[in-house]
Amino acid sequence: MSESSVFFVGMDVHKDSIHFAVLTEASPSPVLQVRKPSTHKAVDEILDKLHGQGTVFACYEAGPCGYGLARYIESKGIQCQVFAPSKIPRKPGERRKTDRRDSLKLAQLLRYGAGTPVHILSEQDEAVRELLRYRDQVRRKAGKEKQKIRMFLLRYDRASCEHKPWTQPYMKWLYGLDMGQSLLTDVLRRRLDCLEYLQVELKELDKQINEIASQERYKDEISSLRCLNGVGTLTALALRCEVGDFRRFPTARSFMAFLGLVPSEHSSGNTIRRGSITKTGNSYLRRLLVESSWKFVSREKNSGALCKQREGLDHQLVEYAKKASRRLHNRYHRLCFSRGNRRIAVTAVARELSGFVWGIMTGHVAI
């Protein structure tokens, strides 16, 4: 092969093995297909040999093995893309799936530019993202534990209480409750101890998240996002670390589509059918934005917390946030009046809120 050869390497990556398929610009059939152990030494053996003969482009499918392999290959001066599995085309009549076929398909997608690469976050942003997702898992566990305690009390006719659930008086009542059987009382205490552990864990995580948000790397962007009504530190940091670079979305609508907040559509000819939102993309951010959108049910008030969040920020940015509040509040009530469904209205508000987020993060702030 000549020194100017271009190689397209598709890799089907597993925990214990990697199957390589190599295509060139000149040959439609693979010049190499081989299975190797999933080690850096094996990757070097294949890629270094090809890199010495020409230009190498590599790719693999996103999966449980993460982005460590892509970062390692990039560190060697070789471009590596990670393709989104949901965007890889599959033939309806195809009934054979092997590592050999998968690696060849990836190499073909790379060669013809038909693959859809995912954005690889920096190691720091990815670490913060893992922390935020862990915090969300702890919050969900705490919520489920509360449900289990309520159901446990209902089964044994102890559900009625004059105190509001999960307040300090209510918790004091629970700890002093006699279930009639020592084993049942012991089970209740153990469940309460589990819930208390999760709540302490949440407080520690929230403290750590606030410390991260105040770091120089994130401080300015988090402060800008928090000037929006309904967007707190947790949501702002999640947006920053889940998305990474907002400039990769050319328009606000493309960012909305990334979140799965645009309507689904099945149109043909003169027939136009639009359905519910697509719910593709990042479900964690979509849920956070929908939760934030409930703030626009009522008109924005000049609360002390919100005014403090906007202190020291650019005047144009603050006016942009106020414009967002007015528009989204009016949007919610118009949709409630026309549709009569609060959930649909809040979801539509979340879609528009994501557009204001994109505007702040890309500098498209227009009053």
What's the arrangement of secondary structure elements?
Layout: E1 5-13, E2 17-24, E3 32-37, H1 40-51, E4 54-61, H2 68-75, E5 79-83, H3 99-112, H4 123-155, H5 168-175, H6 182-213, H7 219-226, H8 233-243, H9 252-259, E6 263-265, E7 274-277, H10 283-293, H11 304-309, H12 315-339, H13 342-362
Parallel strand pairs: 1-4, 4-5
Antiparallel strand pairs: 1-2, 2-3, 6-7
Strand order, main sheet: write it out: 3-2-1-4-5
* Quaternary: single chain
> How many alpha or pi helices?
13
Q: Rg, please? A: 26 Å
Major sheet description: 5 strands, mixed
Number of strands: 7
Task: Estimate percent helicity.
Answer: 40-55%
Count of structural domains: 3
**Shape assignment:** globular
Ends apart, CA distance between termini: 59 Å
Detailed description of the structure:
- It is a single chain.
- The protein has a 5-stranded mixed β-sheet.
- Strand 6 (263-265) and strand 7 form a beta hairpin.
- The chain is globular and about 80 Å long.
- The protein starts with a strand and ends in a 5-residue tail after the last helix.
- It folds into 3 domains: 5-112, Nucleotidyltransferase, domain 5; 123-213; 219-362, no CATH class.
- It is α/β, with parallel strands linked by helices and 367 residues long.
- It has helices at residues 40-51, 68-75, 99-112, 123-155, 168-175, 182-213, 219-226, 233-243, 252-259, 283-293, 304-309, 315-339, 342-362; strands spanning 5-13, 17-24, 32-37, 54-61, 79-83, 263-265, 274-277.
- The chain is built from 13 helices and 7 strands.
